[in-house]
Specification:
273 residues, mainly alpha, two-stranded antiparallel ribbon, two-stranded parallel sheet, 6% strand, globular
Length: 273
Amino acid sequence: MALALVLVLALLAPAAGAPGQDPLLNVCMDAKHHKREPGPEGNLYGQCSPWKDNACCTANTSSEAHRDQSFLYNFNWKHCGVMPPKCKRHFIQDTCLYECSPNLGPWIEQAGSSWRRERILQVPLCREDCEQWWEDCKDARTCKENWHKGWNWATGTNRCPWGSMCRPFRQVFPRPKDLCEKIWSSSFSYSPERRGSGRCIQMWFDPAQGNPNVPVAKYYAERKRSRPGQGHDVAPESGRAVRARPCSVLLLLPLVLLRGGCGGCGARARGSL
């Protein structure tokens, strides 16, 4: 029985603890449309194409991200009239970052939702990205500050809640910081850092110059490890490491327990398993 216990403990050791595998880096969220692991996707569509060399999204997801109302979340960008193209492109890019990026690991948290197990929280978005997003959308119209919840879904798609009024973005979100931090329930935080600083995540980048978010994720992963328990920081071995454990380990557990508990049962026990 002692030998069986040793084997069980060995099998339950987190697979993510293996050398070279960091559970905060190069990972995909456990969410509605994400792949389990990032990898090449040569045919990513339109604005999602910068992630084609290493993506958490499929080509189909990237195509749907560009539609006014896609199967991804059945979300209607036109809830207060047609969204100007210069504004809409930022929401497409926001969707591409969320669905495709493998560099959001340091900000992934448990979601406790029926449609996704994980979400991102307080991703530091570069100030230029927030400011340009606000500038291009300030004259667009919306009826809500937080687009994550509170919609009227009676028709199967999001509509403004009863009694709410459509107003320009500049009234609903007076500052770029308000837009970035409030529209998706604090998924993003407004960073004072600029693009290229290595301290903020870029929604927009030229893939020919490499992905600038890779070193940013590494920087914040190190910070998270050095300050466990502060704010929403957690040790990398918790949560994601458990999910990374291969299924084969769990399949072997009955065999190990039976061998340990049966002792001298011999061939009959193995044959009946």
